[in-house]
Amino acid sequence: MTIEQGFINANRFGYGIRPNETPFSAGMLAQMQSPDPADTALSYPNTEDRRLALVALRNIRRDTNRNSPEYKQLRQELRDGVNDDFRRMLLRPMLSPRGFRERIFAFWLDHFTVAPKQLNSRILQGGYFEDAIRPNLSGRFADLLKAAITHPSMILFLDQTTSVGPNSRVGQRRDRGLNENLAREVLELHTLGVDGAYTQADVRQFAELLTGLTVTLEGVEFNQAIAESGGETILGKTYGDGAASLDNIFEFLEDLAMNPITAAHLARKLAVHFVGPDPDADYVAAMADAYLASGGELIALYDVLLNHKAAQVPLGQKARTPFEYMVCCLRAVEAEADTIVNLDSRALVNSFQAPLTSMGQRPFFPGGPDGWDQDLLAWITPPTLAARINWAGTLAQDHATGLDPRQLLETVLGPLAPDDLSFAVTAAETKWVGITLMLISPTFIRR
After folding, report:
1. How far is the C-alpha of 273 from the C-alpha of 283, rounded, in Å?
2. Taking the domains of the chain in order of start, what are their residue ranges?
3. Chain center to CA of 109
């Protein structure tokens, strides 16, 4: 691998270069094949802990009222916990030498988008990140799919709790019916794609298969009283022939994961996300073929994603999202953990969350179930670009005045830096201005 290709890989497949690391080695795939020390080093409340806290909050409200000191204290602690989720989201890629792993996490988190509708959902969302997505980054796609859509965050986000089998005991008694949201999004967004070979009848049959999957105060459960009984025929195959069950849902998801159309959809989406809006057809086909040949292993996808010749095209077709940009800037100036760890909730919001919103990416709130926009022009507009410039200038003033901008340019962008950028950085009147010029340059904002 040439030095230039190393810089390209670090920016295309990672979060750029942190000066005290050597992240552009050939070992990106190895990041996915060994345990990540950060998984155990960074503690977090899991989904069950969060559920119990929400139950406790409900019980306090029932036994006292919303104005009681006990209720207000626990509610504030849970709100602070949501900020801690954001803190953790920022710290891991900022400090981790496993940039590709962190980018893959961000990709699947966006692929299986959830957006909270109320405080309870926001509290559970951090558990979704850590319990459903992270543990399944390098196994089978079927396992990631099952973990994502059966997590309470996804069930609540897509209103699956309102879906009742029309012929179930509850459906017949209360005249309640199906909600097709989860079934439609699994087919349209998570697996086969918008143009996938399925019909409205398939969506409805899948929605009937999903009835029974719900969330209560006790957590995720399969409730026979609201489940549609009998077999459901989806994409030409019948699942179940009597009492409905979670096993029938999982059987269909296993088949869906191994559908060649799913393979092609995942492959193209990865290529578009990491390389460009119009990926090479052979590149996409090679990823899909490797995935199917492996039995649906994600590592097979990643191997081709990283090593196919089409992955070596020049940078510049993609824009870094605001979150990705923020992480890359923090890495470039060698920001330390204390930069974020020691901030209280208000300072964390003012220093990072509010600027991200100004840049066009409000944390945890994508515009819809299809996730964040992949189009370069969606992220580069006059107001959002101005927000990047303002934030980068503040970062450089606060954290980089002791750095040499010329040396930083050489370390962070190396041969990717054009001559005019090198001249501007060298000629800057102050160090922080020189560093800001690097951080707001098209070379740094694009990848």
Report:
1. 13
2. 158-257
3. 2
